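Entry type: protein chain
Record version: 2
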Amino acid sequence: MYKTATQFLTRFLKPSTIYKYGFNWSPMYRRTTAKIISVSDNLHYVKIKMSLNWKNRNYAGSIFGGSMLAATDPIYMIQLIQILGNDYVVWDKAVTARYKRPGKGTIYGEFIFDKNEILDLKSQLQQTPQIDIIKTMQLVNDKGEAIAEFDKTLYIATKTFYKEKIASRNAKKKTN
C-alpha cells in the first residue's frame, strides 16, 4: 500500500516530501510519538524529534526506551530503499541498543548516508550480491548529550539475487 501510494504521489511531490509526511501520517510511526522534522532532497539525511509526553513516559518519568527504539527502527531501511531504488532489496536485520541517560525533554536523531557510502555499497553489491552493513546513530538531547545509541544491521541484496534465493528456499521446502 505504501509503495503504491509513493509511486503515485511522486507525480506531484518530491520524494523527500513524501518520505517526511508519509512517515508522520503513518499510524505505525505516529504511535512511536516521534516526528520526522527534516529530510534532504536526495534522502541522504533525515532528522527526527521526540518530546517527552504522556504517551511515551515510563515509570521513572523519562522517555520509554521502547519508544526511542521504535522511532529509529524503520528510518534507515526505508531511507536506503528509496536511495538505492528498485534494483535492490533492503531489510532491517538486527539492532543493538545502548541507553546512556534518561530522556527527560526533547530528543533528536539524525540518519545520514553520504554519497560515497552509497557508491561504495553499490560497488560492493557488484562483487557480492548480498551484504550486511551496520549504521550507528544517536539520540541526543537539546544539549547534544547522547541519550541512546543504536547500531542497526541492514541486509542489502540485488533484487535478482534475492529472488533467486527465495525461489531456491521455497523449492527446498517443497521437496521436504
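Comment: The chain is about 40% helix and 30% strand.
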